[in-house]
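Let's practice the habit of predicting before peeking. Look at the sequence and jot down your guess about where helices and strands might fall. Then scroll down.
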Amino acid sequence: MLSTLLAADPEGTTEVINPLIPALPDIIWSAVCFAIILAFFIWKFLPAIKKTLDERAEAIEGGIKKAEIAQAEAAAALAQYTDQLAEGRAEAAKIRDQARQDATAIGNEVREQAAADAARIVANAQTTIEAERQSAIVSLRAEVGSLAIDLASGVIGQSLSDDKKAASLVDQFLADLESDEKSKAAK
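Done guessing? Here is the structure:
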């Protein structure tokens, strides 16, 4: 291929032409066109790009400031919430303690009232029992007396119709029985 390039040279010089390096007039015209395009780009597009980049930087800085403010507000709200939560827990503890104290006081009051009611019921029951006992003793004395008089009348063969005499005899008999029981209980 080199021989064809050399053969095509009409002047017969043996100077080798490099196809990758352009000629000097082409380089000059290309440099002028590049300078014109570069000047137009710097004059028209660079300010617009710079303006867009500045707006984005301001938006980012504003977003960062807003985020910092929001973060500070969130931290303040968290601190306030934590304080309120601690106050709520302290108040709940006070309420629980007060409820325990009230429950203890109510329990003691109920126990005292129950003990008083129980004592009153026992006293009433003892009074009733004593009254019933006395009533039974009087009733039994009268019945035992009448049975004793009937028995004595049958044994003696005479009628003991005198109520005063019969009553005194029965009372004396019962008193003797009671004294015998007391003397046996004392031994």
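How did you do? The radius of gyration is 67 Å.
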